[in-house]
Design a protein that fits this description.
Bound molecules: adenosine-5'-triphosphate, magnesium ion
Largest interface: A-B, 32 and 31 residues
Number of strands of chain A: 10
Largest sheet of chain A: 6 strands, mixed
Helix content of chain A: 25-40%
Shape of chain A: globular
Strand content of chain A: 25-35%
Order of helices and strands of chain A: EEEHEEHEHHHEHEHEE
Oligomer: homodimer
């Protein structure tokens, strides 16, 4: 469902060029529960941003569902993201003037195929799934760190995308809440065959993944497959 | 070093009053390594903000080094914070237009007792301690999540404060980096007798704490003391 071919990502820093990703080549099968781990600064977020089409590689190609994303217009990419890719950002990126419910609803507004009633139903359902029904009207600055993270999670899941990109989705959650969220995602993965791609430092997530990738200094250093029941 | 007496914190949410903290009474001895744990939304950040004097209780009193902070002017509080309290925020709160080094230096600019040479020395020293010497000139948007977290940590430690308030300082760090940062803080705690107060979901931090507090729904539900070598 995701194919990455000889992808490089460079950043300019003053006069220097920083190589954040080197020669990444990789295929991700549909329906996997994949964890990318690696030290701070190793390139996990950079890679997720390229797969999520919110950034472009310096070299190389990325294919989502078989389509070359470098051929797509900004409008096509925005459509792709609102239909197929749910992104849970490391820094949440909630809209401060909107309530929790409005934040969850926001990406659905673009979807002409979803009725207003269906939209409201999904918002209520996913806020409930992450334990935040009582906080639907709170704005982000009226929420704790872990509550904001859960709004970001509900927002990505409510799209019912084919691919969920989750950048450290449990970093700000206590163990019990983290386990609940992980089980929710596993359920969705099993029932709807949604592909989950995590960047994570959390051993709980790594333990429940069926594919593992290790990164270091912008390289992929190991691939692992686990046969899970 | 910190005394909290019958502290309550309420928030207005539309017509409702949300009680985020109930009747917190607690004394924290100088030089402890204290971890506050509890579910997402239980009030940890709220409590840290009150101890750090960046918020005021709705009722009750807070004493820092014996002084009642409700008597202090905004200027006195700002001085107190720039001298005695290092705060590592859950959302880092770095200044986007400044480099990593400038962000670490920022609270020191207010300190007329520290020479420019001493300031530069401290910035270099603490950036090195958190493994970011090579990233001194990067701005926050040119840093990974864990790198930003480490800049926030260096910024708080460079003040050499008597109290460090750390709101989930390892949430975005891989295990190895998290352990290094924790050992650094333990060293500072032992050598300089700095008081460390953590809000955390990380078992590694809890395991190295000599005082533990559990919170739930705005109440303290348990206190623990560990006799550590
Ligand atoms: N705009 C930029 N300019 C220069 N360097 C950058 C920029 N963005 C990221 N980097 C560098 O790219 C490297 C990879 O960053 P990335 O955010 O992908 O790391 P990460 O694996 O997600 O780390 P963490 O676990 O800390 O979140 C880092 O060393 C970072 O300093
Ligand atoms: N400005 C506000 N208005 C209304 N409610 C608020 C406001 N700020 C915080 N709250 C509520 O106060 C409670 C405690 O929040 P706090 O940020 O202290 O939790 P926390 O223990 O730090 O959680 P986490 O582990 O998720 O970071 C939460 O339920 C939150 O929704
Ligand atoms: Mg990252
Ligand atoms: Mg918090």
């Amino acid at each position: 469902v995701v194919r990455i071919e000889h992808v490089f990502k460079d950043y300019q820093l003053g006069e220097q060029t920083v190589q954040a990703l080197h020669d990444i080549t990789w295929s991700i099968e549909a329906g996997v529960f994949l964890a990318i781990s690696g030290p701070s600064g190793s390139g996990k977020t950079t890679l997720l941003n390229l797969i999520g089409c919110i950034d472009k590689p310096t070299r190389g190609k990325i294919f989502i569902n078989g389509d070359d994303v470098s051929d797509m217009s900004p409008n096509d990419l925005a459509d792709l993201r609102s239909r197929s890719i749910g992104f849970i950002f490391q820094t949440f990126n909630l809209l401060p003037v909107l309530s929790a419910a409005e934040n969850v609803e926001y990406p659905l507004l673009r979807r002409t195929d979803i009725s207003p009633e269906e939209r409201k139903k999904r918002v209520a359902y996913f806020l409930d799934m992450v334990g935040l029904s009582k906080f639907a009207d709170n704005r982000p600055n009226q929420l704790s760190g872990g509550q904001r993270q859960r709004v970001a999670i509900a927002r990505a899941l409510a799209i019912k995308p084919s691919i969920v990109l989750a950048d450290e989705p449990t970093a700000n959650l206590d163990k019990a809440t983290g386990r609940e969220i992980l089980s929710l995602m596993k359920q969705i993965n099993r029932r709807l065959k949604t592909t989950f791609i995590f960047s994570t430092h959390d051993q709980k997530v790594i333990d429940r993944a069926d594919r593992l990738v290790q990164m270091e200094d912008g390289y992929i250093t190991a691939f692992g497959v686990r046969n899970e029941s």
